[in-house]
């Protein structure tokens, strides 16, 4: 076959090669149009992982809130019962629960505390810790819901902190509130979890 120097046959151009991905061996760079991306995008994967990490501590924090509601409710009921007690009924009740109460009553009277005053202090203590505990327990429950829905980050952190304090969290007196509250707090302070909150 003869070679025609004036032939108009188009020359073929070789497409530029793409560099290989060191991790997977495939070409790097943008995917061609119409291709389906593999794997979840970071915008979807981050909230999903955060929700998995929050699920168990959030549910346990909700359990703490329910237990605190029961303890605080008992204190409130006890306060109203004490209000209806006479001083003699209060003395009888104390003697039934404490065989050494007669000696303790004498010591209290020597210190300037009458039995009627002790009864009033018990009423105020039950009212204060009972109603205050109910408010805190409902706030802890709200914080657990915020963790499950990944909204209102500050409320979730503050609720976890309240679960740790023995004076306002009934379950913190038996170390249950401290363990669960600290677990929830450490989980919330994770950078990925915090970034997933809306």
Number of domains: 1
Radius of gyration: 34 Å
Mean pLDDT: 81
According to DSSP, the number of beta strands is 0
Termini separation:
74 Å
User: Topology as H/E string?
Assistant: HHHHHHH
Short descriptors:
198 residues, mainly alpha, 7 helices, elongated
Helix and strand topology:
Elements: H1 42-84, H2 87-97, H3 101-110, H4 115-149, H5 153-162, H6 176-188, H7 191-196
Helix pairs in contact: 1-4, 1-6, 4-5, 5-6
Overall description:
- With 198 residues, the chain is mostly helical.
- The protein has one domain.
- The protein contains 7 helices and no strands.
- It has helices at residues 42-84, 87-97, 101-110, 115-149, 153-162, 176-188, 191-196.
- Helix 1 (42-84) packs antiparallel against helix 4 (115-149), helix 1 (42-84) packs antiparallel against helix 6 and helix 4 runs antiparallel to helix 5.
- The model has no long low-confidence stretch (mean pLDDT 81).
